[in-house]
Amino acid sequence: MIGRIAGRIEWRGADHVLIDVRGVGYIVHVSDRTLAALPGVGEACALYTELLVREDLLQLFGFPTMLEKEWHRLLTTVQGVGAKAAMAILGTLGAEGTARAITLGDARAIQAAPGIGPKIAQRVVLELKSKAPAIMAQGSSLMAEAVVTEEEAAPAPAVKAKPARSAPARPAVARAAYSADALSALLNLGYGQADAAQAVATVSGEAPEADTAELIRKALKLLMPKT
Asked: Smallest Cα–Cα separation from 132: which of 177, 77, 62?
């Protein structure tokens, strides 16, 4: 499985790029949004990839983030949504916009993607709405891991040794991390800081053992308009 490609762009097509990786050229299909964000010919780039394998066809699809790759994989589990249709949705809305539309049940936003009709859009929302919080939580975790990796890569300043202190309770640290990730996901969905923070705090108090995905799911129920 080819999960990531890093090399130099040799060609830019209407819906794909040719990336040279140490003398081997890979054709990678990308969305309009991703294509617009990529550098020009001759410049370096890196994409996370998904390999589509069929009897008579091998195709690589490229994504700027692991979160978008996960959304593409999830979208293709919906009946009637192939790899290109999933790319069209992500190209129109992006990973965050797709998450927002599905979480809020906004089938019209999904339908705005080229080639996506009302029945398919409604099916996407209905089948993936319950799965969206888990992917959003995964995205928050990936962002947090990236920050930690950057911090670990930086040289540590010299400090004098200090007396050892007892570490804070691990469950408390985990709960704080879950709440922070859930709040970040709600803010990305467009909720206000005060409303999102209040919802997360309420849910965290009622369900102290909830992980990020469960916090998001329960907080969304609190934030949904009452009918």
From this structure: 77
